[in-house]
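Table 4 source record.
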Amino acid sequence: MEKDRRGGTLYIVVPCYNEEEALETSAKALLDKLQGLQAQQIVSDRSRIVFVDDGSKDRTWDIIDRLYRENESVIGLRFANNRGHQNAILAGMMYARAYCDFTITIDADLQQDINAMEAFIAEYDKGSEIVYGVRRSRNTDGFFKRTSGTLFYKMMHFMGCNIYENSADYRLMSAKALEALSEYGEVNLFLRGIIPDIGLQSAVVYFDVFPRMQGQSKYSLSKMLTLAADGITSFSIKPIRMVFAMGVLALLVGFGMIIHIVYEHYFGYTVSGWSSILMSIWILGGAVLISLGIIGEYVGRSYMEIKRRPRYYFQDVLSREKDAES
């Protein structure tokens, strides 16, 4: 007989990087939400909020330290240096799996609607091991971010990656799913692609996104491009096959040019000017450089993987559970 899942222990994982302007407001909203869930007996009184400081350079850790001292529901994890948003999420989940029945990850700016948590938990209670948060729309994004986001998901599907369109790092994972995730050891993390690969029973919850109220977004264009590159190179070798196809096509064009030159010579036509030759050199040179760049991405990421360096290291851990164990 399956165990009743209702009233399980929830750990809310919140990655933070230079969030001093938003963290006070966000923490209060999350603590109020957690207390509300506990009052309704939707989650247990042992539920916690895990703030993961991704090597912030402002007062983010000082705020987390004070929140920990003032509230028993708060846990603080601090990286020794900046290791990236995906590593911060993973670190929080891997810490939580020893103590929780399920986790919900959410960004510190709370642009994602925290009132969708009840729907996440309802799906978990029904038996889902993973509940994906999917944006209802991208209306709050600017034109560039909205267009690039749409193109990214279409490209990922084209490359063969199993990813939910408009999904976010706002999701629920059970302890069973977290154990499965812990078996994935790659350094170049793209959780939106890795987690669907686990294959456990899942559900989707749609949520609204609100404009950021405090501070500036820490997800710059360069970070978004890095995440996109991680996603493509982690889950598809299609770009390498496309490079091979480009090489075959260039070879066929070369043979065609040979036939064309022989034909012109035989019938005594004047040879075309240097412009056509120069154009061919530029096209083929560009194709070669693009091909080398794509292959270099795979070689570089393979190099990072085989070194097996740790993905993160905690400088400080504020946890009453850890203190009780010691």
